[in-house]
Amino acid sequence: MRIAVLAGGATPERAVAFAGAAQIVAALRGRGHTVHVVDTTQGLLSQVEEGRLLGGGTVGSEPTEVGELAERERAMLSNGLADLPAVREADVLFLSVHGGSGEGGTLQAVLDVIGVPYTGSGPLGSALAMDKDLAKRLFRAAGVPVPAWFMTPVAPEDVTTALGWPVIVKPSRGGSTIGLTLVKNAKGLDQAVTLAARYDDDVMVEQFIPGREVTVGVLGDVPLPVGEIIPKHELFDYECKYTPGMSEEVFPARLDTTLTRQLQELALTAHRALKLGGYSRVDFRLSPEGDIFCLEANTLPGMTRTSLLPQAARAAGIDFPDLCERICRLARNRGAEGAARGG
Ligand SMILES: Nc1ncnc2c1ncn2[C@@H]1O[C@H](COP(=O)(O)OP(=O)(O)O)[C@@H](O)[C@H]1O
Ligand SMILES: [Mg+2]
Q1: Nearest CA to 178 among 200, 162, 157?
Q2: pLDDT value for 253
Q3: What does the alpha-carbon distance between residue 316 and residue 310 come to, in Å, rounded to a whole number?
Q4: Can you give the pLDDT at residue 59?
């Protein structure tokens, strides 16, 4: 296949996106595919730029400063991208971007207009999954349990009555735990809301669920083995997510069969509730009482070899290059179905 990996993006998760791209590119080239790399903020990368940006495929411990990248990405999406032969002539575009327009559906809408198949979900599913408030309403309607929440503004007394303390305060459309705070009492609420509001106008105040954290990948319409995440910090924060050794991940999670099946079924229900496509990863908390709460669905989950979805795939006997190829095939088949329908 001719594949263009669309990487980077103008978001704090830019470094994460390049780290994933480095490994996706190596895996797909290793399988004999023709692979180009396109930075969504600057176009086709030369071999030298590829070497510099993709580097060793590691992520620093701090998110990227976005600065003027956003402006350049806007220019690329509004015309540059469609003019690139590497994009137009690709059989599949492999998306390795996180957050921002790439995860929120804007990039997907542009690619639909260009008419080249791309991996993962379409504009609608991407936008819904990105918006934790809307996603949780749809999960709840589909019977997937979620933690109780308010959107700001909310009075501290209402939090005390309806949610209790502690709470999690986070931007509704965020990622990588950026702008998220665990707030132990009413005194800390304002400051946490101000921080989250730096990343999104919509801020969520959510019931804190103590207990265990698990994640379920969905590939095509099959849930993968459940994984458990045991971070070194209290929360699965940016540093724990991207620094090797800062969290322990267990695949398959040590859970009884009933709970495992239940989680896999809920992940698939969540994936369908948001009309996601291709693949996704759904995150849950398990309370000490044994209740399940869905936190979110990730439409472009991390794709370094040590990321959670690749680990889940490996537990199902699917190695990393195989996973990358399957994700491409799912995209191509969907593209072909779309074309057959005339859309
Ligand atoms: N309601 C909650 N209760 C307990 N922990 C939470 C809650 N919400 C978020 N967290 C912690 O913060 C992490 C990131 O939150 P999440 O909602 O998945 O947002 P992001 O899009 O940033 O990954 C979770 O993996 C979990 O460790
Ligand atoms: Mg998450």
Answers
A1: 200
A2: 98
A3: 10
A4: 67
Contact 72, 18 (CB under 8 A): no
Mean pLDDT by 10 residues, the chain (343 residues): 94 87 97 97 92 74 75 88 95 92 91 96 97 98 98 98 98 88 96 96 97 97 97 85 88 97 98 98 97 97 92 98 98 80 59
Strand locations in 267-308, DSSP E? 279-286, 292-298
Give the burial class of 68: count Cβ atoms within 10 A of its Cβ; 0-12 exposed, 13-18 middle, 19 or more buried. exposed
Closest CA to 291 of 256, 252, 259, 254: 259
Catalytic residue among 8, 9, 13, 334: 13
Asked if residue 168 lies in contact with residue 136, where contact means CB atoms within 8 angstroms, the answer is no
- Would you report the helix, strand and coil content of the chain in percent, each value rounded to 5? 45, 20, 35
Phi, psi of 122 (to 5 degrees): -80, -175
Q: Please tell me the distance between residue 292's alpha carbon and the centre of ligand 1 in angstroms.
A: 14
The total number of structural domains in the chain stands at 3
What is the CA(151)–ligand 2 centre distance, in A?
18
Which residue in this structure is represented by tokens 């470094």?
15
177 lies in some domain? yes
For the chain, the distance separating the N- and C-terminal CA atoms, rounded to the nearest angstrom, is 22
**Sequence-distant (≥ 6) Cβ neighbours of residue 44 within 8 angstroms:** 36, 37, 38, 84, 86
Domain boundaries, position 248 = 130-146+209-317
Q: How far apart are CA 135 and CA 295, in angstroms?
A: 9
Q: Is 208 in the pocket of ligand 1 (CB under 6 A)?
A: yes
Do 156 and 114 share a structural domain? Answer: no
Active site residue 283: yes
Ligand 1 proximity of 285 Cβ (cutoff 6 Å):
yes
- pLDDT for 56 equals 61
Whether 176 sits among the annotated catalytic residues: the reply is yes
Are 246 and 174 members of one domain? no
Does the active-site annotation cover 296?
yes
Is position 125 within any domain? no
